[in-house]
Write a structure and sequence with these properties.
The protein is an alpha/beta fold and 263 residues long. The chain is built from nine helices and seven strands, in the order βαβαβαβαβαβααβαα. It has a seven-stranded mixed sheet, sandwiched between helices. β1, α1 and β2 form a beta-alpha-beta unit.
Length: 263
């Protein structure tokens, strides 16, 4: 595992948010792999570790990494309000031109995160890059739930071409965040990003990856998460309030924004 203290990182190229809720068993492995992969690739990474209201030793572990490595930023959320809230809290701390988020479970290889960043950093306009977990080691029940959810999403949004809506990491320009006005504090943040990226006319790039089994710890996705997803899908599909919250004035958008903003 990578434990060497790196040189001071100023002017980072990429800010990656890792929300951590009671992940003491796996988070150090995930952090080490990410730092090692980006250092070997020669990219200046700002790794924002969010203690998302943990009740175990996660916060202590994250503070230790921040003390030892200047590329690491530790941010604490006092009370857990959901996965999405942890991500949004971390994104507010980001300083690099490109930002992204990834769960702390280490299921996506750090080298694949680097490759995804290498694809998106070549763009001079707004794009959303994400992984597509084509090779998953989940159990049969999880696969059935995931397939049903993604099919439902495609039925409601047939023009959003993705077979893995929740695939993370997702990477986008930091300057796109104000326009997206992200609000979901729960697990619906990933679909909200996809829906609003589409509404803003952002090109979506998907990169096939192998999704590993969680090495340690437990998943925080609960049975009620399925109902949460479907309820929010219907809310976003059949209401227009969220559309009014997107930036519609072309003069307010930077030159790197899409040519047209969809209504």
């Amino acid at each position: 595992m990578f434990t060497q203290v790196s040189d001071a990182r100023s002017d980072p190229e990429f800010s990656l948010v890792v929300p951590c809720y009671n992940e003491e068993a796996v988070v150090s492995h995930t952090i080490g792999k990410l730092l090692d992969a980006f250092q070997r690739a020669g990219y200046r990474l700002e790794l924002i570790l969010v203690d998302n209201g943990s009740t175990d030793r996660t916060g202590e572990i994250l503070r230790g990494w921040a003390d030892r490595n200047p590329a690491v930023v530790h941010h604490k959320v006092e009370r857990n309000e959901g996965y999405g809230n942890g991500v949004l809290s971390g994104l507010a701390q980001a300083s690099a031109p490109w930002v992204g988020s990834i769960p702390a479970d280490g299921q996506v290889d750090a080298e694949d995160v680097v490759r995804l960043y290498e694809v998106v950093r070549q763009s001079d306009t707004w794009v959303l890059a994400k992984v597509r977990r084509r090779f998953r080691l989940d159990g049969m029940l999880r696969k059935i739930v995931s397939t049903t959810y993604n099919v439902s999403f495609r039925i409601l949004w047939p023009t959003i071409a993705s077979v893995d809506v929740n695939g993370s990491p997702k990477i986008m320009p930091r300057e796109a965040l104000p326009a997206m006005a992200l609000q979901s504090k729960d697990w619906f943040l990933d679909p909200e990003i996809m829906i609003k990226a589409h509404a803003l006319g952002m090109r979506v790039l998907e990169f096939n990856v192998f999704a590993r089994l969680r090495g340690a710890g437990v998943s925080h996705v609960k049975p009620g998460t399925c109902w949460e997803f479907f309820r929010n899908l219907l809310k976003y599909r059949f209401t227009t309030k969220w559309k009014r919250e997107l930036i519609r004035d072309r003069s307010a958008l930077p030159s790197s924004a899409p040519v047209s903003v969809k209504s």
